[in-house]
Amino acid sequence: MNWFRLARPFVHALDAERAHCLAVSALANGFVPLPAPVEAPGLRTSLWGLDFPNPIGLAAGFDKDAEVPDALLAQGFGFVEVGSITPRPQPGNPRPRLFRLVADEAVVNRYGFNSKGLDAARAKLAARARRGIVGVNLGKNKTTEDAADDYVAGTKALAPYADYLVCNVSSPNTPGLRALQSRAALDDLVARVQDALAGLGLPKPPPLLFKIAPDLTDADLEDVVRVALDRALAGLIVGNTTLARPDSLRSPHAKEAGGLSGKPLFDLSTAVLKKTYRLAGGALPLVGVGGVSDAKTAYAKIRAGAALVQLYSAMVYEGPGLAARIARDLPALLAADGFARVADAVGADCR
Predict the structure, then answer these.
(1) In what order do the strands lie in the sheet with 98-101?
(2) Where are the alpha helices (DSSP H) in the chain?
(3) Is the distance from CB of 307 to CB of 18 less than 8 angstroms?
(4) Phi then psi for 46, rounded to 5 degrees?
(5) Other beta carbons within 10 Å of 234
(6) pLDDT: is 84 or 172 the higher one?
C-alpha cells in the first residue's frame, strides 16, 4: 500500500514550498514510514570506486542544506545528492517560487539557490557516520562576479565530506550561470576546481562531475563533452530543469517563470542523455535525470546511457517511497531483456 496516496490530498492542500519544508522536517524527526528493504544483487553498481546498492538516486534540490541525507537513504535510495550549496548564505528568489503542475505531474521552480551556506552544510556533513553514498552539489552566490571562486571555495570546504562532488552550472534561476557551459568558460572552471581538489591532498579525492542543462544546442553539447573528456571529468549529470514549455502542458502554472521538471521533461532529457552518451562514445559515466517516475522510465534512462539515475519531482506525486518501488520493479525489466545487472544495460539503445 502506498501510504502517500492517502496523504497526498492533505499535502497538496498546502503551499508547495511549505509542504516541502514540512517533508524535510518529517524526515528529520523520523515521522516518515520506512519502505521494505530491497535486496537485488543485479542492481548493485560499482562506479568511481563506490559501491551503489542500487542505481536510483535523489537529485539535488530536495535536501538543499544537507539536513536529512541519511533519512533519505533509508527510503530506498542508492545514493543521495545534497545542495545546491552556495559559499555564503542567501535567501534565493522571492516567494512564491515553487509551483505544482498537477495535471501534468510536473513542477516549476525558481528558487535561485536558496542556501544556508557552506558552514551550515559542513557542520551537518561532518556529523554524519557516512553510511551510504552522499554527493555534494555546489552552486554560486548570485552576486559573485568570478563564478569559479565560489566553486573553488565550495570544493575546499566540502570535498572532504563528499562521496562525489558536483558543480551545478545549469540552473536557469541564477543570472549568467548557464553561460559557464560555453567551452572556454567551462574549461577554465573545470581546471580551477580540479586544481583546488588536488591541492587538498585528500587520500581519496571525491570524483568530480558537472551538471548540465537539457537545453544545450548540439554544438554546445559537443563542446561540453569535449571539455569533460579532455579534462578527465568523472562524469556528467544530464540534466537540469528546462526553460522549454511543451505544448502538452495543461496546468495554469505552466506559464510561471523558472525551470520545469517532472514527467514533461522526460523525452527531452532522455534525448540529450542519448546524444551525450554517443558523443562520449560511452567513455564518460553519465547520471540520467529528468522525468523519472517509475521503473520503466528509470530503465529507459539506463538504456539511453545512464550508469546511475536520479529523480526528485516525482516524489511530489508519489512520495519518498518511490525509490524503493523502482528498485523493486527494475530487476524484472532487466531480466526481460536478458541483462543480469544494470551495467550490462547501460547504453543498450545506443549500441
Answers:
(1) 98-101, 106-109, 259-262
(2) 3-12, 16-28, 69-73, 118-126, 147-158, 183-199, 218-230, 266-279, 295-304, 315-318, 322-336, 342-345
(3) no
(4) -105, 125
(5) 18
(6) 84
Comparing CA positions, the residue from 237, 173, 188 lying closest to residue 210 is 237
pLDDT digits (tens, 9 = 90+) for 319-342: 999 999 999 999 999 999 999 999
Write out pLDDT tens, residues 82-110: 999 999 999 999 999 999 999 999 999 99
Residue-level pLDDT at 1: 57
Amino acid (1-letter code) at residue 99: F
Of 260, 277, 253, the residue nearest 350 (C-alpha):
277
Task: Name residue 286's beta-bridge partners.
Answer: 236
CA distance 60 to 263: 17
Q: Any idea what DSSP says for residue 49?
A: T
E strand or H helix at 210: strand 208-212
Q: Which of 171, 269, 293, 313 is catalytic?
A: 171
Provide the grid cell at 31.
Answer: 515521522
pLDDT tens column, 58-77: 999 999 999 999 999 999 99
The angle subtended at Cα 227 by Cα 154 and Cα 155, nearest 5°, is 10
Contact yes or no for 292/312 (Cβ under 8 A): no
Residue 203 grid cell: 587520500
Alpha helices in 231-308 (DSSP H): 266-279, 295-304
Q: Is 115 a catalytic residue?
A: no
157: Cβ–Cβ under 8 A, 6 or more apart, which residues? Answer: 87, 118, 119, 122
What values do phi and psi take at 78, rounded to 5? -75, -20
Give me the mean pLDDT over the 228-245 stretch: 96
Strand pairing partners for 209? 166, 235
